[in-house]
Amino acid sequence: MNPRWFGDDRGNAVVELAPVAIIFILFIGLLIAGGRITTANLAIQDAAQDAARQASLARDPAAAQAAALPSAKAALAGDGLDCQPAVTLNTAGFTVPVGQPAAVTATVTCQVSLSGLSAIPGMPGHVSESATASSPLDTFRGRNGGAA
After folding, report:
1. Are the beta carbons of 71 and 50 closer than 8 angstroms?
2. Which helix H or strand E contains 137, and what residues bound it?
């Protein structure tokens, strides 16, 4: 046997570094996914607040619904989130008599894309995020109550 082959450590560092590099790359991918989801959640919360505010300015449930969706879409586009939001409103506040406090609640749901992170094992292609916000109706402003 050639003693030169037994004592040679050349190339060991590359072999030892490979598993560490894979774990590091997976960790960075998870950080990016977490950042995307967090940023999207903040944008969706902002959109829900905007939708609730615009709905609270309306005089009836139909006008509230008509105002909420475009407002949510504009807020999401302004925050750079590309998704098709679903907006559901609770307009029961329009049935409350004038002079009593009432509110409109908006829930915005969006599919957040995680494409580009498919190299991470087990990472879904998208996640569904939603947020809910309420906005008070003017206590002394006339309301055309309708079905909630």
Report:
1. yes
2. strand 126-137
Question: How high is the pLDDT of residue 147?
Answer: 43
Instruction: Kindly report, residue by residue over 30-44, the tens digit of the pLDDT.
Output: 888 888 889 989 999
Q: What is the pLDDT of residue 76?
A: 93
Q: Across the beta sheet with 126-137, what order do the strands follow?
A: 86-90, 102-113, 126-137
How far, in whole angstroms, is CA 126 from its chain's centroid? 11
Taking CA atoms, 45 is separated from 17, 35, 55, 99, 137, in Å, by: 42, 15, 15, 29, 20
Task: List 112's β-bridge partners, or say none.
Answer: 127
104 SS3 class: strand
Question: Which pLDDT band holds residue 81 (cuts at 50, 70, 90)?
Answer: confident
The rounded radius of gyration (Å) of the Cα atoms in the chain is 26
Instruction: Please give the DSSP secondary-structure letter assigned to residue 76.
Output: H
In Å, what is the CA distance from 71 to each residue of 33, 57, 140?
27, 12, 24
Summarize pLDDT for 138-148 with one digit per residue, the tens. Answer: 888 877 765 43
Backbone angles phi, psi at 106, to 5 degrees: -115, 135
- What's the rounded Cα separation, in Å, for the pair 67 and 57? 9
> Which residue type does 100 have?
Q
